[in-house]
Model the fold of this input.
Amino acid sequence: MPPRHILRFLALLALCHATLLAAAPIPASVAAVAAAQAHAPEIASYQMDVRLDPAAKTITGTERIRYTNLSRDTLPDLWLHLYLKAFSSLDTLWMREAGAQHRGFALDPSHLGDISLSRLALADGTDLLASATVTDTLMHVRLPQPLPAGGRVELDAAWVSKLPRVFARTGYGGPNDSFFMVGQWYPKMAVYDRGRWDAEPWHANAEFFHDFGSYDVRITVPQAYIVAGVGVPAGEQPGGDGTKTLHFTATDVTDFAFAASPDFRTQNARAGDVDVALFYLPEHASVVQEYLDVSVGALEAYSAWYGAYPHPRLTVVDVPDSAGGAGGMEYPTLVTGGSLGLPLPGAVGLVTSHEIGHQWWPMQTATNEGREPWLDEGLTEYSGIRYMAEAERRIGYGSTGISALALERTQYAAAPDMPATRPAWDYTQAAYGADVYAKTALGLWTLERVVGTARFRQAMADYLARYRFKHPTGADFRSSIEQSLGGDLRWFFDGYLASGSPIDYAVDPIVSRDAGENVTIRRVGQVPAPVDIRITLASGAQQTRQWNGAAERISYTFPSDDPVSQVVADPDHKLVAELNRLDNGVSTRVEVAPALTLGGRLVFWLQAAAQLLGLLG
Ligand SMILES: [Zn+2]
Done:
């Protein structure tokens, strides 16, 4: 595997997507709350009629937005996202942050994107466009009458979206430039949450923060085009002018996207009650089965772990290698995959299982990815690598394949010094992958192993039940997890996630004294993670001690008549996030001096070699 492929692959893993507010009181009965939340509140719903012009690379559309103010506040104004403006020049915030590239895919400056409105009005015809102002990717709209709490406003918009040549999630490309991935593409309501509008322009790292609602979308395309859309297909009508119009509906979702290509082939599968619809390209016929197996397997796994997937259909969109920037992205009920420049078995599965994880985080929890991206990418990355491990899927050929866990540890090791809980815009692209994705994922896996898989999954399911179809924050997640696990998890949330310190323990050389054999374990990092310590005596007897890691070190003394032959911190590798295991074990006795003997050095280097192999393969 050439290094550039590894880099692109890791970069992709890293990037597909604050103020902590006080946590809301946790509802006591998870079951009662879950039963009451079969459907999302309809806050922002859209009825759209749009036409794709494949030659001009444009979408011309009209929409009616039905916005309901479910806050307690009166709103004198509204904010709309015009995401495609991010690609309209090199000077936008997105372009400046991204350096006009994304995950190794470069912008084509001669094919930029844009979106422009020709109409924005209330349903009674009152114009809103003349007084609206646009800054970067945001439109600020003053209302002639404030919108009271509980009130509803209907907006009519007409617009043209110009798609960029795809390098970052949305646009066109592929053979004959006839593949279209249409995302972040229409005038879309911002979110009013906890007393304020989330009026952040689009940032390079962040993707989503949207309200729930329903979508009723009609898409007109040339007859030859095959369309994959969010939600479920609800009919198709010929246009009489060489076009056809496809109808899609979706409920309990936060966004709408679609893909279109004359080259799509389709395959279907079932995951319980859910239809899995794969739209793939002939160039990737060899991975159709991998797409289907992983889509079904991941849907079933996450449904069992966290709670059932709440939609009747999941659409999986393959992307051409030459439009790889569209791959590895999530929308509600629709994900994009692709081989992403890594022509290895397992790559499609790794990407697809991650994107399907997003169907829980954030598609059901609608967290703010800009302010708290770890609640979105971190939880999803954990889900994906756990699925890959449970399904015994590796990346690469046969026994030389790499586990998703090994890749994750490599990614974390590249930049392990930042907290995982910062806003998306605080990170470089590389640190975003290392800390928001990998650090969070490895931390959650560590927590799972410390408390036990069944308890951990129940805690995650409780969190989903409490906050499905809401906008939970990191504080809500923490309160929910701590309540479910029945304890204070400061070591995890403050010590690990919110700090730049790693989990790291070390075992000192065994020391023989008159009083007996002395064993010392040191906490090297700042994170007081609970750790097991296994002591093996010369007789073969073993003892395991649990240490809470609160102090900087702990010592144990054993009688000299059965000397200590080995000490290992974290012998069962529960601390999945501990990168440096080189110093976790000592099996050589020394006579007082705390220096490594020749034997100790040999053990050290053998462990170093083993760890290196663990990281790479
Ligand atoms: Zn993701």
